[in-house]
């Protein structure tokens, strides 16, 4: 039997290795005292970044970079980012400490770490005052914004009301104008219809008297023309038998309506047609045929008599053209 002295020394301690069931390294959180300067943690962080770059270079590339430009060549800008934080960082009294934890995985060639911020300490009076100021400014800005929005809404509503009033007033003006025009048109139509009715009534009532007067004027007209051949009396514009019911005073009174109403009236010459009446009048009032009577007209009356004869000849030509057109 072996004695205790013969026994070997204490058995070696079996250290527990990482289980392959874990997917990756298990980070551990280590608390360390708060940094005396805000850049102390930044220095640790920058050192950690450089360390990660060296380890990654040794593991992946199997090279150790000799200068930071090696990182930039491979697109590693984290170091520059850490240095740039000095531009944006504003120190506060309650900055949380940043801890670094890392653990070897398997062979220990690859390192990984995590940055964790310690819980912030209790709010300091300065921080509380800053927070109060910020909230007050926010409330002021919010109130100003709400007032601006309310004023904008009121202005928009007022513009809408004003536009509605203007449009309504324009509609009323258009409606009044339309009604006024409609009333004027109605009154015009009524007046015209009344005047036409009155004219027809007067014509119906006065037709017998008018026909009698036309018949008497026609007899006088024919009788006067029959006496011109055997008479030698001087002729003037006033005593020439013009083809109108009422004796004209000037050549302007010898219009187509005045001559047609007399010459083509049904109150006389029912046995002859309108075309025959016009043809007979053309032979009588032709300027060449009437020239033999101009010798009996005084020099003072010749111009106005010639103007009257020319007006009658033109009207008779127009009546003949119209009558020929109606007979086609």
UniProtKB/TrEMBL annotation:
It is found in: Nucleus. Its main location: nucleus. It comes from the Eukaryota. Residues 1-36, 102-126 are annotated as: Disordered. InterPro entries: NFKBIL1. GO terms for cellular component: nucleus. Keywords: ANK repeat, Nucleus, Phosphoprotein, Repeat. GO terms for biological process: negative regulation of canonical NF-kappaB signal transduction. The keyword Repeat applies. PANTHER family: I-KAPPA-B-LIKE PROTEIN IKBL, NF-KAPPA-B INHIBITOR-LIKE PROTEIN 1. This is Uncharacterized protein. It comes from Ephemerocybe angulata. The lineage of its organism: Eukaryota, Fungi, Dikarya, Basidiomycota, Agaricomycotina.
